[in-house]
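User: Please fill in residues for this 364-position structure.
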């Protein structure tokens, strides 16, 4: 692909370098331009994977700290459970020993109303204490179970992070080695490295912040999503039918809705296609495009509709998969049907040219 935004820069630097080192040559061939673009692409990929490795290293430290803190809480909770169990045991033994029956007999033996009321009040305090002792044991044990589940999940997350870290390290070493060989073979390594540095710098300072702005705005607009699902509402796209319902929206309607909520979407246009959702636009001389799709998955026990990034492109350069995944982690673009309507379930999602359709079921 001939890159619009960087073709002028590439040609200018190529020409400047050719005059410096090869005065008799004023132009580079089309093949050399394509080679330069390919090396720029590889340089950006290396840069982004290196950024992901740094993020994973930070996540590893954070998860390790969280795991240590949870282990401390579990140790403290085990002491609470032990104490609650001891107190609950005393209560249970007192019932088996008949001690509580004697209290009832005292209540029945009183002969005046004031004594009856005082005795009943005393008995009520004892029974309330018994109930709280038994409940405290149940709550403490339940909390301990929750903590242990959390600890197991944190250990799993930590292990996945470490595995991903090692995977990306291997990936970047291979890419960097390949890039170094190709730079040496090009005979123009200094020039191309300067171009790579320029591209990576613009991506870091302008491109990535722009993508973050769009993702942040999308996450913010999710708060208005219930407007689209209110039957009879002016912005509703939900139709109810026997046994369920259907949500349908064209890409033109989506663009109008997004722009009515946030002016940042004036520079971005969404399109529905059978193979995914496209968003593209130009802002401050930067071309951006996002491709993704909706998938059904679970967040714990809760079903959600998750947006999965398939491709990000900045000024004609594709970003690696790690960039999309990091933005997915940073910004929550999920739809939680159960939070909108507790009785609704999503049966399937369909994408067509210009149309998004979601089939809903009713669970009464």
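Assistant: Residues filled in for all 364 positions:
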């Amino acid at each position: 692909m001939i890159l619009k935004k960087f073709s002028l820069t590439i040609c200018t630097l190529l020409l400047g370098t050719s005059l410096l080192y090869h005065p008799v040559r004023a132009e580079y061939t089309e093949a050399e331009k394509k080679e330069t673009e390919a090396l720029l692409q590889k340089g950006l990929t290396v840069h982004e994977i290196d950024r992901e490795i740094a993020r994973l290293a930070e996540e590893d430290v954070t998860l390790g700290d969280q795991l240590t803190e949870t282990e401390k809480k579990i140790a403290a909770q085990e002491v609470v459970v032990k104490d609650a169990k001891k107190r609950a045991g005393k209560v249970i033994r007192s019932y088996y020993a008949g001690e509580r029956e004697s209290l009832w007999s005292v209540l029945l033996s009183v002969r005046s109303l004031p004594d009856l009321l005082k005795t009943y009040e005393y008995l009520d305090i004892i029974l309330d204490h018994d109930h709280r002792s038994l409940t405290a044991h149940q709550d403490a044990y339940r909390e301990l179970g929750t903590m242990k589940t959390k600890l197991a999940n944190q250990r799993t997350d930590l292990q996945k992070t470490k595995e991903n870290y090692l995977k990306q390290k291997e990936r970047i070493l291979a890419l960097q080695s390949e890039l170094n060989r190709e730079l040496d073979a090009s005979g123009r390594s200094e020039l191309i490295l300067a171009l790579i540095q320029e591209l990576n710098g613009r991506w870091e300072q302008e491109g990535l912040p722009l993508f973050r702005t769009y993702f942040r705005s999308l996450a913010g607009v999710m708060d208005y999503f219930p407007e689209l699902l209110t039957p009879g509402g002016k912005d509703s796209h939900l139709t109810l039918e026997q046994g369920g319902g259907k949500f349908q929206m064209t890409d033109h309607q989506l663009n109008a809705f997004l722009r009515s909520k946030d002016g940042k979407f004036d520079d971005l246009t969404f399109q529905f296609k059978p193979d995914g959702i496209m968003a593209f636009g130009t802002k401050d001389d930067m071309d951006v495009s996002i491709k993704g799709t909706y998938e059904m998955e679970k967040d714990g026990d809760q079903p959600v509709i998750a947006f999965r990034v398939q491709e990000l492109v900045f000024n004609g350069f594709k970003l690696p998969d790690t960039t999309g995944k990091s933005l997915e982690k940073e910004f929550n673009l999920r739809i939680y049907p159960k939070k909108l309507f507790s009785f609704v379930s999503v049966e399937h999602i369909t994408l067509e040219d210009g149309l998004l359709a979601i089939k809903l079921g009713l669970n009464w």
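For context: Strands lie at 238-241, 244-250, 268-273, 276-283, 286-299, 302-314, 317-318, 344-352, 355-362.
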